């Protein structure tokens, strides 16, 4: 297979929504677009570092967030539950 260009997306989905909503388009967040022309390979960590740092901050310290349904602020924390990727991405993410 001869590929002339490769673009990678990193998508985020909120899993604190009902199952029928969490994977819908309005709730899909494009966190990163890694442009080609080649795959990032082992250099993918350069692109992922800001996302990892922010997710770490959200896990450790959280962020004050407004809940419109209760009209109150609350401390929100975030975690990576899993990753879903094809085999080339799996190889690069696993080192």
UniProtKB/TrEMBL annotation:
Source taxon at top rank: Eukaryota
InterPro entries assigned: Transposase_21
Name of this protein: Uncharacterized protein
Organism: Dipteronia dyeriana
């Amino acid at each position: 297979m001869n590929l002339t260009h490769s673009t990678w997306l990193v998508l985020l989905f909120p899993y604190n929504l009902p199952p029928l909503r969490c994977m819908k388009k309005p709730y899909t967040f494009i966190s990163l677009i890694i442009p080609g022309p080649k795959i990032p390979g082992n250099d993918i960590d350069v692109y992922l570092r800001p996302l990892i740092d922010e997710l770490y901050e959200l896990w450790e310290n959280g962020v004050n967030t407004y809940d419109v349904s209760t009209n109150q602020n609350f401390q929100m924390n975030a975690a990576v539950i899993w990753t879903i990727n094809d085999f080339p991405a799996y190889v690069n993410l696993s080192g």
